[in-house]
């Protein structure tokens, strides 16, 4: 649990880093990636940010910020179910927080595996919710693809978040 | 002091369940038309459109680079294919020229009044819903560019979808593969009408065909113009049969939309913006008129 003992260790700007990066990752989730032969399914970067900060600095990513991030994503991506991402993010935060000990000070592969499990849970929940609301089972293929692509992109997101994480002490100077 | 500390602890403990409850409630009720969202959404999209556009540039560059590498790898095969296709197209050009002049003569014969002028505006795709249960894109043109709700978006290949949300400088296009997309179509060369219903897969379903309709894979599907949202005869796609179900492979490459054309055919099948109450009227008496999605 790095840094979390002393809440006031960081300055204001540094304390904003988890929230800000999460919002930026929400925008990143919306950009049209055209990966050949994968189409336009965009990796859910926002989920990575929620996962990352829930493990390392949950104190700086409170439920309200997670809620706002989810709402922003829903409002921007045009879903008829505004609030679904917020719900999923909040549940992910709660779930990850309860398993925090499992992830801290472990090799990256464990973290990656944990994220895979999280993504499976998150997208399965979305699939179930939307299927229920549409009163028909949606084709599961896009959800499986999204899970795999998001998991495959996790190292990139994780690397960027780790960079931001490491820059926090410098930002509070 | 102790009271305030314990109060604060209680509030903190309650925040999470409360937020979870609120988001679940929103997601469930959202489908039942929450007006506020539509407006917040449009304002957000308008505000962030320039940001998304700039942020998308490097990604577009990388995508293009990957595309170039792919192209280089397949240049020989592509060239062969293009030569064959060119041959075929030249023949079609011949046919088209002949039909054009014949059409001209026939029109003169019956004093046919041509359709009103159409105007179109080119738009860049700046955001992609990307999710697994949504098929829509955000484009960087809006009311300021003369776009209005319901207008069809096309690529050079065929129909992409239609404008469902409109801001001043951004608009959201519902793709024809979205589960909420229902487009009246007709099998080209026949009078067989049907609906093209998206189900979030890459190939929308062709439904409400008359029984015993001789539709077969390879048939071309065009818009029928019923309902007055789309003009007739916009190319949509080609019939494919998947597990005995008639589906349509869209002509437009919906997975890689970069530019689309929003066309104004002067149709008014969709209720005008004025049919939707303005934000201060939230909770007011007027029910919201939603166009059939």
Ordered list of secondary-structure elements with their pairings:
The complex is a heterodimer of chains A (173) and B (293).
Chain A: H1 12-28, H2 45-56, H3 63-77, H4 84-98, H5 100-103, H6 108-134, H7 141-172
Chain B: H1 2-30, H2 35-73, H3 75-110, E1 119-128, E2 136-139, E3 152-154, E4 159-166, E5 171-175, E6 182-187, E7 193-197, E8 205-207, E9 220-223, E10 235-242, E11 245-250, E12 259-264
Antiparallel strand pairs in B: 1-2, 1-12, 2-5, 3-4, 3-12, 4-5, 6-7, 6-9, 7-8, 9-10, 10-11
Protein architecture, described:
With about 170 residues, chain A is mainly alpha-helical. Chain A has seven helices and no strands. In chain A, helix 1 (about 10-30) packs parallel to helix 3. The longest helix of chain A has about 30 residues, at about 140-170. The relative contact order of chain A is 0.17. The radius of gyration of chain B is 24 Å and the shape is globular. At the A-B interface, helix 3, helix 4, helix 6 and helix 7 of A face helix 1, helix 2, strand 1 and strand 2 of B.
List the main descriptive attributes of the protein structure presented here.
heterodimer; A: 173 residues; mainly alpha; globular; disordered N terminus; B: 293 residues
In short:
Helices cover 71% and strands 0% of the residues of chain A.
């Amino acid at each position: 649990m790095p840094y979390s003992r002393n809440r006031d260790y960081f300055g204001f700007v540094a304390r904003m880093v988890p929230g800000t990066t999460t919002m930026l990752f929400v925008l990143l989730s919306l950009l049209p990636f055209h990966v050949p032969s994968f189409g336009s399914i965009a990796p859910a970067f926002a989920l990575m940010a929620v996962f990352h900060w829930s493990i390392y600095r949950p104190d700086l990513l409170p439920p309200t910020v997670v809620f706002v991030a989810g709402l922003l994503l829903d409002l921007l991506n045009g879903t008829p179910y505004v609030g679904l991402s917020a719900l999923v993010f909040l549940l992910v935060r709660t779930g990850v927080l309860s398993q925090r000990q499992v992830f801290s000070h472990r090799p990256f592969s464990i973290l990656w595996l944990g994220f895979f499990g999280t993504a499976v849970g998150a997208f399965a929940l979305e699939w179930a919710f939307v299927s229920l609301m549409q009163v028909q089972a949606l084709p599961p293929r896009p959800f499986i693809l999204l899970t795999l692509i998001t998991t495959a992109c996790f190292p990139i997101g994780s690397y960027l978040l780790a960079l931001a994480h490491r820059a926090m002490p410098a930002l509070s100077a | 002091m102790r009271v305030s500390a314990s109060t604060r602890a209680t509030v903190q403990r309650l925040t999470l369940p409360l937020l979870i409850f609120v988001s679940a409630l929103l997601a469930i009720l959202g489908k039942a038309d929450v007006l506020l969202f539509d407006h917040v959404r449009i304002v957000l999209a308008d505000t962030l459109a320039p940001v998304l556009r700039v942020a998308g540039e490097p990604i577009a560059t990388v995508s293009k680079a990957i595309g170039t590498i792919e192209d280089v790898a397949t240049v020989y095969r592509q060239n062969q294919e293009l030569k064959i296709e060119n041959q075929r197209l030249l023949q079609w050009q011949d046919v088209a020229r002949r039909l054009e002049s014949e059409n001209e003569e026939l029109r003169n014969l019956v004093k046919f009044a041509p359709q009103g002028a159409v105007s179109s505006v080119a738009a860049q795709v700046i955001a992609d819903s990307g999710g697994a249960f949504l098929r829509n894109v955000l484009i960087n043109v809006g009311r300021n560019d003369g776009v209005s709700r319901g207008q069809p978006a096309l690529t050079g290949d065929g129909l992409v979808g239609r404008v469902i949300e409109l801001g001043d400088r951004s608009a959201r296009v519902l793709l024809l593969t979205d589960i909420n997309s229902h487009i009246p179509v007709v099998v080209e060369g026949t009078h067989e009408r049907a609906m093209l219903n998206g189900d979030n897969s890459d190939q929308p379903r062709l439904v409400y065909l008359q029984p015993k309709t001789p539709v077969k894979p390879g048939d071309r599907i065009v818009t029928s113009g019923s309902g007055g949202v789309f003009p007739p005869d916009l190319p949509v796609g080609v019939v494919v049969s998947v597990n005995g179900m008639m589906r349509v492979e869209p002509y437009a490459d919906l997975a890689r939309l970069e530019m689309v054309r929003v066309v104004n055919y002067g149709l008014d099948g969709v209720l005008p913006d004025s049919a939707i109450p303005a934000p201060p009227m939230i909770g007011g008496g007027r029910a919201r008129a939603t166009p059939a999605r």
